[in-house]
Design a protein that fits this description.
49% of the residues lie in helices and 17% in strands. By secondary structure, it is α+β, with helices and mostly antiparallel strands.
Length: 452
């Protein structure tokens, strides 16, 4: 399997293969280490036993009156007396005389040329009867009454250690194979259980696509829940934007209905169509279309405004524009508030929300419109107060209905407050209507505060 296929395969397959990639080498290395430890221990134990045999052989050696070397008694291990048992001894005495254990029977077993120093034990590898691998331990002894040192050696068949090591390796291999199977099974179960939340998420997405739900439902682990929350938020934002697009289409249709009716009436008039009326209504429709196109262009940034917008400069710009529209009435628009106030909204949307409120207040005020922007409750509150007639408390909910107008004599489409409330809600804010200290209307626009 190539690295690219591993990264593009399913998570279950990738996690299981990664488990195999660490379990298999780990168990192989463990097997090698344990086998080597067993071999080392077996050889150390064999060396200890052979050192005891060598000490016993040295203890039973004696020099006869004629100067020859002999055994005072047989060694305790009966294998030294059983022919070709795999355990032997040999003593090279003065005058090239050689003593051998009965277990060598008629076999000759020569030691390599060597002269160990007093107290030293040398080890040699030999080939014994039936070409069996042998290991010899020898030492040089000075016996009382002997003219020259005596060379004593004990020899053992090493195939026993090799067979024991091979047997241990087979048992260990089977054990590690069973352990590997168990670990892989546990890894498979772990992968399946661990990926269970993703399968539940896939099922929830299938329900979402099939229309059986409108969000991802269910409880998920802490590692997955943020993804689910983000997906739900994204879907909610998409639904909100679709609803906003539908509302904008309805707003545009509503705004164009009156100019079209005026043009139709002008066309049906007995004196013919008045070009001035047509031009005025066409300009009115063009303004409505441009306004809604600007809102559509601002839509992608509606829910993702990052840097935020400083409030007071926008309010002052709007105040200057609205004041020019009401020059003949001498409307005084006062702007005050926190110069550092910054809202989490696009400048275009803030202009539209605040512009609707200030323009509406200027239409209904007697002389003064007061606008403030202050931080409150973790957000920014923009309050627009006028000294006009106000709105009765039992009618305030009516003015927020789409297209509602309490006085048809005042120009307008009846959409200003509705659009402002809609934009505020989409930005995570709200709109509230109260009575101003001067008896007019006080409109508070609550928007989330952006980081300064």
């Amino acid at each position: 399997m190539t690295p690219s296929s591993l990264t593009t395969s399913s998570l279950t397959r990738r996690l299981f293969l990664l488990s195999v990639l660490w379990i298999a080498p780990a168990l192989v290395i463990t097997g090698i280490i344990l086998t080597d430890l067993f071999r080392t221990h077996a050889e150390a134990e064999l060396s200890r036993r052979m050192a005891q045999h060598l000490d016993e052989l040295a203890a039973v050696l004696e020099v006869t009156p004629d100067g020859a070397v002999a055994l005072a008694r047989d060694l305790s291990d009966p294998r030294f007396r059983r022919p070709l048992s795999g355990l032997y001894w040999r003593v090279d005495g003065p005058g090239d005389r050689v003593l051998r254990s009965r277990s060598l029977w008629d076999q000759a077993l020569d030691l390599p040329a060597d002269t160990p120093k007093d107290g030293e034990v040398h080890r040699h590898s030999l080939t014994g009867p039936n070409r069996a691998p042998l290991v010899a331990w020898e030492r040089s002894l000075r016996l009382p009454g002997a003219a020259t040192p005596v060379r004593a050696a004990v020899i053992v068949d090493a195939s026993d250690v090799q067979a024991a090591t091979a047997g241990f390796s087979r048992v260990l291999g089977v054990s590690l194979a069973l352990l590997a199977a168990g670990l892989l099974a546990a890894a498979a179960v772990q992968v399946r259980l661990g990926l269970g939340p993703l399968r539940r998420m896939r099922a929830a997405l299938a329900d979402l696509r099939a229309g059986r739900s409108n969000r991802l439902e269910g409880a998920f682990p802490g590692e997955v829940q943020p993804v689910v929350d983000d997906l739900n938020l994204l879907m909610e934002e998409n639904r909100t934007m679709v609803e906003r697009a539908r509302a904008q289409a309805a707003d545009l249709a509503h705004a164009l209905k009156t100019p079209l009716a005026v043009i139709a009436n002008a066309a049906a008039a007995p004196g013919g169509m008045d070009p001035a009326v047509v031009a005025a209504e066409a300009e009115r429709m063009r303004g409505q279309i441009e306004r809604h196109l600007a809102r559509a262009r601002a839509a992608p940034t509606l829910l993702h405004s990052s840097g935020g917008t400083v409030v007071l400069p926008v309010l002052r710009q709007i105040a200057r524009t609205v004041a020019r529209l009401h020059t003949e009435r001498g409307v005084d628009i006062q702007i005050d508030g926190d110069a550092r106030a910054r809202v989490r909204a696009d400048p275009v949307d803030l202009q539209e929300m605040a512009g609707n409120l200030i323009d509406n207040a200027a239409k209904w005020c007697t002389a003064v419109v007061r606008v403030t922007a202050v931080a409150a409750g973790g957000g920014i509150v923009i309050t627009v107060q006028d000294d006009g007639p106000g709105i009765p408390a039992d009618r305030r909910s009516d003015v927020l209905a789409r297209g509602a107008r309490l006085d048809e004599a005042v120009p307008g489409s009846g959409l200003g407050l509705t659009i402002t409330e809609e934009l505020a809600r989409l930005h995570g804010g709200s709109l509230s209507l109260e009575t101003s200290p001067t008896g007019g209307l006080s409109v508070s626009l609550h928007l989330p505060q952006a980081a300064r």
